[in-house]
Design brief:
single chain, 342 residues, alpha+beta, Serine Threonine Protein Phosphatase 5, Tetratricopeptide repeat, Neuraminidase, four-stranded antiparallel beta sheet, 7 helices, 13 strands, 19% strand
């Protein structure tokens, strides 16, 4: 009898330990997700999902949805589509899973399939105006495929890498220098970004030679640091460089700031924070008006329309201090994310 009692007690202890371990896995996944470390969160959510009992359909459905969310937020629509499809098959599925499945299909260029899925979303979320907007966007994409414009888009292979390359800006009035953002291996920061799984980005420079060939891109001197730099904006006189610098912490969201560097000759000076927001908040993707008195940027500070919005600050002249930030309002911003105003 005593042996049976001891066995029962041991089984209860093991069950409690296993339950606590599973709870920690789920907590770790959500901590990474809340910190914006979506790439890291994927593995945590998958481990938690694999350890969740098949009888626990509600939690399994939630974990599948969260894996889809992570893939969506790292801009991997193919994998997002796979997990959202699994999510909507559950009786505990969220309406958002149907919407983001359709959105993932749209991102992958599967416009007709996306239209079909957006129509299904309309049936379960009849008051959400996004569905009609997205359906119209897909219809336009199909029209443009049938009757394409005369412009031809070509890849500049000399500048691109296997990693992310984006946000180009000409650095000289003869258009012979280009600055852009990249997470390639030559970047100064040696950390891996928890949100993308790639290295921290830096600002790179390439020059056009006499044979109209772009040189091998190199990090811009002085501008880059161990943090993450990107989205360069160069003024029309090519004398000032505005860009974004973001700090990162483990399972911790930190701020982004807009930096300014001034050119002397052919060299950029030490960049300084222009100070439009506290360092703990997000100010990113700068774009300056031609007269230098209005700066547009991206932020998720309170008072916006949804996620990230486009904001502005102004000043009377180029030597004055910037005003308090002002949101551009619903004519520009939506409940989604507005980024890259330039």
């Amino acid at each position: 009898m005593k042996r049976i009692q001891v066995l029962i007690i041991l089984l209860i202890i093991f069950a409690l330990q296993d339950s606590q371990a599973q709870l920690k896995k789920v907590e770790r996944a959500y901590e990474s997700f809340q910190a914006g470390e979506y790439y890291k969160a994927i593995d945590h959510f998958k481990v938690a999902y694999s350890k969740t009992s098949k009888k626990d359909k509600e939690n399994r459905a939630e974990l599948v949805f969260m894996i889809g969310e992570c893939y969506r937020l790292i801009n991997d629509p193919k994998n997002a589509e796979t997990w959202y499809k699994q999510a909507i098959r559950s009786s505990n599925s969220k309406p958002e899973a149907q919407f983001w499945l359709a959105e993932s299909l749209k991102k992958s260029g599967k416009y007709q399939n996306a239209i079909d899925e957006f129509k299904k979303y309309k049936q379960i979320a009849q008051t959400d105006a996004r569905a009609d907007q997205e359906i119209r966007a897909c219809e336009l994409a199909l029209e443009w495929q049938r009757d394409p414009e005369l412009y031809k888009v070509e890849e500049i292979r000399d500048l691109n890498s296997r990693e992310s390359d984006f946000s180009p800006a000409y650095g000289r009035d003869d258009f012979g220098v280009v600055l852009f953002t990249s997470s390639r291996d030559d970047a100064l920061g040696n950390k891996t970004h928890g949100a993308t799984g790639q290295g921290f980005t830096d600002i790179f420079e390439s020059r056009l030679d006499k044979k109209s060939k772009w040189s091998i891109p190199v990090p811009v001197d002085v501008i880059n640091s161990e943090a993450e730099e990107g989205t360069p904006f160069i003024t029309s006189d090519f004398k000032e460089l505005y860009f974004t610098r973001c700090e990162a912490g483990k399972r911790e969201q930190k701020g982004c700031m807009i930096m300014l560097s001034k050119r002397t000759g052919d060299k950029w000076g030490e960049p300084k924070n222009i100070g439009i927001l506290p360092d703990s908040l997000v100010a990113a993707h700068p774009a300056l008006s031609p007269d230098g008195t209005t700066l547009y940027f991206v932020s998720d500070i309170p008072g916006g329309s949804g996620g990230k919005d486009i904001w502005m600050v102004s000043r009377a002249s180029t030597g004055d201090a910037w005003s308090n930030p002002r949101n551009l309002g619903p004519d520009i911003n939506t409940p989604g994310n507005e980024v890259f105003p330039y």
